[in-house]
Amino acid sequence: MANILRYRPADDAFDDLFRGFFMRPVRFDGQQELQIKIDVSEDDKAYKVQADIPGVKKEDINVNIDGSQVAISAEVKNEKEVREGDKVLRSERYVGRVSRAFTLAEDVDESAAQAKYNNGVLELVLPKRATAKSRSLTIQ
Fold it and tell me: What is the dihedral of CA 119, 121, 125, 126, to 10 degrees?
């Protein structure tokens, strides 16, 4: 017997908040939604992010860093040539903009951050910003 679940529209909005945006792209029944899937790891000096963005040129990828917030966006293009007389029966390729935003525990040193894109995987090295050490002042 199938389980019956109560539909809660607020849960979907909450889910979208963690995906980075409140709006989902239009999609047809059975069509997969394109998402940027990420892995984040850290050591004592930096965060390392691997983001899967297949089928995108590196020129079409943007990474914005603002303190501890990181936003990755990409323009996905379907540059398919259809000859006269050919008829497209079904197209499951996504065309449009995808993005992902997340917040890290510590601020990132934007000037030392590095990005590489190879075989559909964006690799980011985000060094942690050095925190100011407290010191005691001598009173004169």
Answer: 150
Q: Which helix (H) or strand (E) holds 123?
A: strand 121-127
Nearest one of 119, 100, 126 to 57, comparing CA atoms: 119
How far is 46 from 70, CA to CA, in rounded Å? Answer: 14
- Domain positions in the chain are 38-80+92-129
CATH topology for 38-80+92-129?
Answer: Immunoglobulin-like (2.60.40)
Nearest to 117 by CA among 125, 109, 106, 127: 125
> pLDDT tens digits for 4-50?
655 565 555 555 555 554 444 444 444 445 689 999 999 999 999 99
CB of 115 closer than 8 Å to CB of 123: yes
Report the distance separating Cα 106 and Cα 60, nearest Å: 27
CA distance 73 to 58: 11
- Whole-prediction pTM: 0.64
